[in-house]
Amino acid sequence: MQNKVIAISVTITILMVLRKIFKSHEKMNLKLIEHKTVVVTGASSGIGASYVKYFAEHGFDVIMTARRQKNMEEIKESLKHCNVKITVFPSDLQTDEGVNSLVKFVRDYNQPIGAFVSNAGIAYFPVDFTDSPREEYTKIINLHVNKTTDLIQKIGQLFKEQKSGVFVQVASGLGIVNYPMLQIYSATKAYLVSLIRSVNQEAKAYGVKYIAVCPLWVATPMTYTSKSNFFFASSDRLVKDFFCGSWANSSISPYWVHRALLKIWLSMSEKRRMEHVHGQAKEAQKRLARKKASLEAEARKQQ
Predict the structure, then answer these.
(1) Which SUPFAM superfamilies is this protein grouped with (predicted)?
(2) Residue 166: CB partners within 8 Å, gap ≥ 6?
(3) What is the average per-residue pLDDT within 204-218?
């Protein structure tokens, strides 16, 4: 009995210490965002919507942008209790017009921008590269590489003029480890991780911070996963962990399970790692096929 009491006391003490560390990180990270207006792209669902929610609940005004205006209006309505200004700006960041109109809107806004979360992205069904439809992978390259690079540079110019700002690029842990069957997605995310790391080093001279967020699996509509579990972090959990963790590095995997898995994978030989993740990708392909079929069957029933 005495040993149980000691164990419980030690556990509680450790949890209290960890909570204090996380709270201090969160306070310090939020302090880096000098201005109370932030921008979130890909804000109509998933990770983007969770960033909007987190910022609003912490007293930031939010400019949210995505293609689906109705979804954004619903999110805005759900956050009325936060008493902050939420602006919905529909845009398609797969186009030059979408990127340029958003940048113009942000520049013309009557408040300086504290943070910009670049979350717009596309995923696709796991498939061998030789079977990849060209129209699909060119869309991914266009958005993740071409248009996001434009956005990083143009918002970077604004932050450089302000001499402040935090640019958050939602990338992926698959950009740190190569991932068969999601090879184009993985390669474009690797490009973004590399770009953010380089730009962050340059931006230190004028007081701007760049961070690449690199999760593995997140329960969002993009992954056909509605419920979080040990491996699939909820988008709210991911965002909370991002703000409560250290921002010392320019690429971060916020959820501890993902961070641990990435370390394990990177400790393996390339041959063993590739065999392992390829097997995982094949299992994911089967799981997604079942999930997709189930959703389609449900949709047919409702017609």
Answers:
(1) NAD(P)-binding Rossmann-fold domains (SSF51735)
(2) 32, 33, 114, 115, 116, 208, 209, 210, 211
(3) 95
Instruction: Answer whether residue 122 shows pLDDT above 80.
Output: yes
* N-terminal to C-terminal alpha carbon distance within the chain: 60
HEC readout, the chain: CHHHHHHHHHHHHHHHHHHHHHHHHHHHHHHHCCCCEEEEECCCCHHHHHHHHHHHHCCCEEEEECCCHHHHHHHHHHCHHHCCCEEECCCCCCCHHHHHHHHHHHHHCCCCCCEEEECCCCCCCCCCHHHCCHHHHHHHHHHHHHHHHHHHHHHHHHHHHHCCCEEEEECCHHHCCCCCCCHHHHHHHHHHHHHHHHHHHHHHHHCCEEEEECCCCEECHHHCCCCCCCCCEEHHHHHHHHHHCCCCCCEECCCHHHHHHHHHHHHCCHHHHHHHHHHHHHHHHHHHHHHHHHHHHHHHHHC
Q: How confident is the model at residue 195 (pLDDT cuts 50, 70, 90)?
A: very high
What number of CA atoms fall less than 13 Å from residue 36's CA on the CB side?
9
**Does the reported pTM lie above 0.70?**
yes
Angle between helix 270-302 and helix 256-267 axes, rounded to 10 deg: 140
Q: Which residues contact 147 (CB under 8 A, 6 or more apart)?
A: 93, 94, 95, 96, 98, 99
Above 50 in pLDDT, residue 12? Answer: no
Are the beta carbons of 54 and 240 closer than 8 angstroms? Answer: yes
Among 1-10, 144-153, 223-232, 253-262, the range scoring the smallest mean pLDDT is 1-10
pLDDT at 289: 79
Q: Round the average pLDDT of the chain to a whole number and report it.
A: 89
